[in-house]
Every structure is written in C-alpha cells, then in structure tokens.
UniProtKB/TrEMBL annotation:
<feature type="compositionally biased region" description="Low complexity">
    <location>
        <begin position="131"/>
        <end position="160"/>
    </location>
</feature>
<dbReference type="GO" id="GO:0003677">
    <property type="term" value="F:DNA binding"/>
</dbReference>
<feature type="domain" description="Cytoskeleton protein RodZ-like C-terminal">
    <location>
        <begin position="169"/>
        <end position="236"/>
    </location>
</feature>
<feature type="region of interest" description="Disordered">
    <location>
        <begin position="128"/>
        <end position="160"/>
    </location>
</feature>
<dbReference type="Pfam" id="PF13464">
    <property type="entry name" value="RodZ_C"/>
</dbReference>
<dbReference type="InterPro" id="IPR050400">
    <property type="entry name" value="Bact_Cytoskel_RodZ"/>
</dbReference>
<dbReference type="InterPro" id="IPR025194">
    <property type="entry name" value="RodZ-like_C"/>
</dbReference>
<protein>
    <submittedName>
        <fullName>Unannotated protein</fullName>
    </submittedName>
</protein>
<dbReference type="Pfam" id="PF13413">
    <property type="entry name" value="HTH_25"/>
</dbReference>
<dbReference type="InterPro" id="IPR010982">
    <property type="entry name" value="Lambda_DNA-bd_dom_sf"/>
</dbReference>
Length: 240
C-alpha cells in the first residue's frame, strides 16, 4: 500500500469527507484528492508536503513519523541520486565552442546609443522653448444630497422563537481556533479568546473543528457536554 492509499483508507475509516478534512486543514480539496492518488507534485516541494502530512496525521489517527518515512521513500527529491536529478532537470548539456565576439559589435552598439542621446536632447530642447499654458482652477459648486431617513421596521411581538433543531453554545476557557460549518457553509472560522462565548443554530446539523478540544466547553440543546477532549487535542465533531 502506497502513501496515497494509506491516507485514503484512514480518512474513510474515520468517516471524514474530503471537504471536511480540507476545511480543517485550510487547504484545497483538490490537493487532498491528488495526495490520496499518491500525487504530491502540487504540494510545493518536500517541506510543504511533509508539513501537510504532519497536520493530517492527528486528524486521521495516524503516526506522522510513519507518513514522513513513506513520503521520503516514495517521493522525496532528497532520496534520488544526483545523476537522476541531473537527468530529470536537463542540467547535463553538451558544451558548445566559445565564439569570439567581433570588435564591430560593441562599436556599432556605442554609435546607436550616441544617436539616441542626441535625438532625446533635441526633443527636450524644443519642448522647453514652448510656453506652458497655466491651468485656471474653476470652483465647482458641490451639491450635497440630503441624507435619507431610514425607517426601522416594526418588531412583530407575535414572531415565534427560533425552532432550530440544533442549538449550540461554545465557551472558551483558553485561546482556541475553531471552524464552524452549518449546512455546508463556514459561518465562523477564527480564534476564540479565554472567557468568550458564541452561539450557533441550525435546522439540520453543526460541524465544529477544535484546535484544542480541552480549552472549550460545549453545550448542545441546553445539555452541557463539557470539554470533548484533552488539552491540545485536535478534534472535529458533528451534532445533529
């Protein structure tokens, strides 16, 4: 089993879609698809490819050292021989005989430069002799449009309360990055500070990525679930 097949199998076993994994990593879904096909050419080089693998490993329950070892064995440019790299990059070329440059070439080039400089000086001299017309500033009256009056819509006291199937409250006890997806839309992606709380509602489901599951308390539909993981644990959960 190659590296791409290992990634694909682990993602499917974790019941994580390509789009969810791409959102958690903040990378394109197309890049993940290429990596699962064992194609790492679009990662931007060995350093970026290894970085992606280190970020993917905890989300799929894999050993990052094992992934890096597979990558180095199958894809790393550092593992190929110098001769192979020279052939791949067409570095080895047939030497050509050095040609002597005739003295006429620099002489002709110098003459052309002198002619160009002379023409420029003549044009500048003729331009400076012509009087420059002075622009006359004309004051233009400014019409200030009246500010429209915005009428706030009346609040209907009979409007029923929210009937969302999933209501969630997140309360951070420490700084933590989260990514909240509701019905396929990223409604919030950023950092919550210690003591900060946020509420989210959905008619179907709410999917949340936590960079540190031990730094945030979760309440769903009035039920306090507490902290869903340990300190520093990367976690994604979907609530329906």
């Amino acid at each position: 089993m190659n590296l791409g097949e290992v990634l694909s199998s682990a993602r499917k076993d974790s019941a994580i879609t390509v789009d969810d994994l791409a959102a958690a990593l903040s990378i394109r879904a197309g890049l993940l698809i290429d990596m699962e096909r064992n194609n790492f050419s679009k990662c931007g080089g060995d350093v970026y490819a290894r970085g992606h693998l280190r970020n993917i490993a905890p989300l799929l329950g894999l050993d990052s050292a094992m992934l890096i070892s597979l990558y180095n064995a199958e894809h790393s440019m550092e593992s190929t021989s110098l001769n192979e790299q020279l052939v791949e990059n067409n570095i080895t070329k047939v030497p050509h005989e050095k040609k002597n440059i005739s003295w006429k070439v620099p002489a002709t080039f110098s003459l052309v430069i002198l002619l160009v400089v002379g023409v420029v000086q003549i044009v500048q001299s003729n331009t400076s002799d012509e009087p420059t017309p002075q622009a006359v500033a004309t004051a233009t009256p400014t019409n200030v449009a009246p500010t429209p009056t915005v009428t706030e819509p009346a609040v209907d006291p009979t409007t029923p309360a929210s009937t969302a199937n999933v209501s969630m409250t997140l309360s951070a006890s420490d700084a933590v990055r989260i990514d909240v997806v509701i019905e396929g839309t990223h409604v919030f992606k950023g950092e919550m500070l210690a003591g900060e709380s946020k509420n989210f509602d959905s008619d179907s489901s709410i999917s949340v990525y936590f960079s540190d599951a031990g730094a945030i308390d979760v309440t769903v539909n009035g039920e306090n679930l507490g902290r869903l993981g340990g300190t520093g644990e990367v976690l994604r959960r979907t609530f329906r």
